[in-house]
Design brief:
2 domains; single chain; about 180 residues; Oxidized Rhodanese, domain 1; alpha/beta
Length: about 180
């Protein structure tokens, strides 16, 4: 029984090869087209700008390392924005930061916009190198009219690695 089944599968596979190839080529074409128009397009063939960010986003803000971010934080005009979840923010964050989480952006945005003018320089950060939350929030803020957006490259992990200060609420210090 098995001997008859295997040749039949091979014959069917060979006979269906043109259809399978057609579906694969059409699927690839659709994926490339969708990526080209998606606001968070992936850099498929070139790595221009910031990985995983559309060029129009990368051209409107720049990413800074932790030391340069520290200089920005020291400027009272700069608003530091934590894009991580509110639980993570409440445990530990960069001193003076406010929370505007990507997950929950719509719920927090009205309070954010009421207290932060669109001309104010912003420094956004998230978890780390592989985290795209800060870039996604930056994109949303730029769409809403914020013009001076900077992202901390490497997020809070880079900040910690540079041994820069973190704010930990008293509740989490065990006091």
């Amino acid at each position: 029984m098995l001997k008859k089944t295997v040749p039949l599968l091979v014959v069917l596979s060979v006979r269906e090869l043109p259809r399978v190839a057609t579906v694969a080529v059409v699927s690839l074409a659709i994926a490339i087209a969708a990526n080209a128009v998606h606001p968070m397009q992936l850099p498929l063939l070139t790595a221009k700008g910031q990985p995983g960010l559309p060029r129009w986003v990368a051209s409107r803000f720049h990413a800074v390392d932790a030391e340069e971010a520290m200089r920005l934080v020291e400027n009272p005009k700069v608003m530091v924005v934590d894009t991580r979840d509110t639980d993570d923010f409440s445990q530990q964050h960069i001193p003076g930061a406010i929370s505007l989480p990507y997950h929950g952006f719509d719920e927090h945005y009205s309070q954010f916009t009421a207290s932060v003018s669109k001309e104010r320089p912003l420094l956004l950060y998230c978890y780390g190198t592989d985290c795209g939350l800060a870039a996604r929030v930056a994109k949303r803020l730029m769409i809403k009219g914020y013009t001076k957006v900077t992202i901390l490259r490497g997020g809070i992990k880079a900040w910690e690695a540079a041994h820069l200060p973190l704010e930990t609420p008293a509740v989490h210090k065990g006091e």
